[in-house]
Specification:
five-stranded mixed beta sheet, 295 residues, Arc Repressor Mutant, subunit A, Jelly Rolls, single chain
Length: 295
């Protein structure tokens, strides 16, 4: 079954049963507290043609967020960033509090910088969530509330006011992101390349299985990427992709009661026979044999 992709913000609202619409196709902000019992409590993996920023202030363990295959369960006091490139799914509890911002890149058509480069926390090669300190939490939550109030005023210039406020907010987050990078200062350039490559695989292995595709996203040649991976990890770059596919395939086969053909689709194979050959080549067992062994 093809994964859903939502072109418009209001299309997502209709799919989830949220009973509001945005009068600006490029922007909307909501509070989790606005979601009624008629609004969906979970969504299977989907993509959308717009960006999302979420802050979760309080929640229970029922709430879960999955960005590609990054499963996020320690969600309280966290900030999340989702781009059109991400595959996203979630489950919420009735008691979750916080905000969600949706916006299209067109909303920043006035911005003279390079949006994707300047705000790398939306990038699928980078970490897309932050656990906020108490001080940062208060400041960031205040910014969300300010944007919420501005959206819900009758000011004739609220569109422009929100544009500038949202851009200022993104630069504030950028400063927090750069501070968090201090944890990676011990990385040299090659180690940072490996870090980004592994994160890309983590996010994209379902749809991208070629080293050259990842190399292009990392702005290096496939041969150089392979050379660095061999030096740091002791194996060819393609092996990291294969290992990720096998790890996730084993999880699906062991814990999900679904057909092997659906497992194949979930890990990015259109033909179950291709998946079966791949799995046996790398494990010595067919998918069914593996499942029977671990059932």
């Amino acid at each position: 079954m093809p994964m859903q992709r939502f072109k418009e913000i209001n299309d997502l609202f209709k799919a989830t049963g949220f009973n509001k619409e945005t009068d600006y196709p490029e922007f909307f902000i909501l509070k989790f507290e606005e979601l009624s019992s008629d609004t969906a409590f979970s969504m299977p993996p989907y993509q959308k043609d717009f960006y999302q920023i979420s802050i979760i202030l309080k929640t229970t363990r029922e709430t879960k967020i999955e960005i590609d295959i990054q499963r996020n369960e320690a969600l309280q006091n966290s900030l999340f960033f989702v781009s059109p490139d991400h595959i996203y799914s979630w489950r919420r509890s009735e008691n979750v509090t916080g905000y969600i911002i949706y916006f299209k890149q067109d909303y920043f058509n006035f911005y003279q910088g390079n949006f994707k480069q300047d705000f790398a926390f939306f990038n699928i090669a980078d970490k897309n969530s932050f656990q906020l300190s108490k001080t940062s939490l208060q400041s960031i939550a205040s910014d969300f509330e300010k944007l919420y109030r501005e959206y819900h005023t009758d000011n004739l210039y609220r569109y422009q006011i929100i544009q500038s406020s949202l851009l200022s907010f993104l630069f504030k987050v950028k400063s927090l992101d750069e501070l968090s990078l201090k944890d990676r200062t011990s990385f040299n350039q090659k180690e940072m390349l490996v870090f980004k490559y592994e994160n890309l695989i983590h996010n994209c292995f379902r749809r991208d299985k070629q080293v050259k595709t990842y190399a292009a996203q990392l702005n290096v040649s496939a041969s150089y990427l392979n050379e660095v991976i061999k030096e740091i990890k002791g194996k060819p770059a393609k092996e990291l992709i294969y290992e990720k596919i096998i790890i996730e395939s084993k999880k699906e086969l062991k814990f999900n009661v679904i057909a092997v053909s659906e497992v194949a689709y979930n890990v990015g194979f259109e033909e179950p026979t291709h998946f079966a050959r791949f799995f046996k080549k790398h494990t010595g067992l067919t998918p069914k044999e593996y499942r029977n062994l671990h059932s």
